[in-house]
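seq/struct pair 1
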Amino acid sequence: MAEAANAQDLFSGTKPVVESHKFNEANLAAWMEAHVEGYEGPLEVRQFKGGQSNPTYQLITPKKKYVMRRKPPGNLLPSAHAVDREYTVINALYPLGYPVARPYGLCTDESVVGTMFYIMDMMEGRILWDGTLPDSSPAERRAIYEAKVKTFADLHNVDWRKAGLEGFGKEGDYIARQLHRWTKQYKASETMHIPEMEKLIEWLPRNIPPGDKTTIVHGDYRLDNMVLHPTEPRVIAVLDWELSTLGDPIADFSYHLMNWVMPPGDTTRGSIMAIADLKAWGIPAMDEYVALYCQHTGRKGLPELNYYFSYNAFRLAGILQGIIGRVRDGTANSANAESNAARVVPLARFAYDYARRAGMKE
């Protein structure tokens, strides 16, 4: 568990603001004075250590702490780092009592700190980076996993129209649109012929499970994207809504389930696949976790999971191949290019294996 302990140390807490992410703090203080209810300076700015793609800052005042999420400086893809979308979904969920930080305001005026940003409450609690929860007892692990799946189900149960999220994403055909997007990216970035990917490109769009339902989806729901109560096994805030949209809840949930089926090293830190006896450890087996999700969402079961596991691994392969392609074209940093390249073929084979389990013929 040493690697996970290092991750906990590496990503927890704050640091001085790195040079490339500095901004005019006096401008921010003036904006908060005008727009944030109850704000009283002076203001001290720190930067969170965690691996966010949108720079995230802790704003400390004598009476309370806030968090600022902003677009990174520099040239960006038009749809990337959409902090305004993050703010939209948090702003819609907070009045419903869903566990998100209280939002205070969105600033689209780039003259204030250089890029768009929003301010929300700082939620004091625990952010845990290792899914095996090495420092918890079996009973605590069980309670945390139960809270995690209940909070996820609650999100998928939200009536997005009543929440005012009409137009937050397209309704229906989510998997078809995702497959088209990642196939296009994969083909544009292709650096080697992978037979399994070719077969999946043909098979997956033709075999999308029926009954496409639309809900709010988080896009990257995992342990280190939530704040737990300081002492209780309770989710007090779900974080990092950058990938949120309207989409297929089973695509969202099955991506979260990849921790139960993908080999250690291929998913988030602290793979539970490394634990021999989940029951003794206190973590629900996948079937049990799926049953809890179904119970909370009123479903009778999730018979199409093998298809969704194939889809998720295919999507991940497409994302990684896109990074490799950008390195090839000189538009991305090559720091992790080798490790990304080494992961594409195993992901393609994993996706192919689950497609066969879902009914794909040789």
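seq/struct pair 2
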Amino acid sequence: MAFVGPGFLYILLIVIYPLGFSLWASFTNMRLTSPIARFVGLDTYAQALGNDIFRESLIVTGLFLVTVVALEFILGFALAFSFSRMRRTHPAMRALLLLPVMATPVSVGLIWKLMLNSDFGIITSWGELLGFGRVLWLSDPVLAFMSIVIMDVWQWTPFMFLILLAGLEGLPREPLESAAVDGASPLQSLIHVTLPLMKRIIMIAVVFRLMFAIATFDTVYVLTKGGPARATDLVTLFIQREGFVNLNIAFASAVSFLVLIAVLIATTLLFKRELSDAK
């Protein structure tokens, strides 16, 4: 107990208590502007589900998740497959690829905000040199959404690369050698041998990335703050705005638990499907 006690106390104060308090608040009408909170049951959840802005943020979040995870998987797998085919790779090459993941989210958002600035941003300057004119990356809704996608892909593709490279390097060589002996081309070996063998690793990488991506907040908040016209208003930004700007703690807590339930259901179904396929 002397060793376990401090760790358990830390988890109790930092994780369990805030989670329990948030769950209790979601069943009340608690607002920081009012000293009185009363139990309202599921009314707050009903209000959240009927909120148009919340539904719009869910659509934006869903589109963001599908886009970034798909692009990060494609790029990460391409990089991992290239590295696995190389006879010799210096460890410094892998370390350099992992630098974006190690950067703090706020610094990443600030760097991209400077690069995409319409007056002096380096990416805007390159666009002018190439004849595209001055592109207003952060003022146009479509371009702003593309900006947060590009920023997220730049930062988190190395995460996919690392997991997929570990999976590729751990694959048995016999099936690949047998395919080569049977006359299979590299593309056929990739599609019919490598990808089926990598199925579980790919599922783990995608699920973990989905869990991290749905919690994206810092980078997007610094870059766009959800604008323009709520084009980049992820559900995390919606929760932050309701809880810390509108001071509606009950509503923010209810939305948080709705998102948590959706994530738990999605990840559970994905893992159960993968485990059932493996039997």
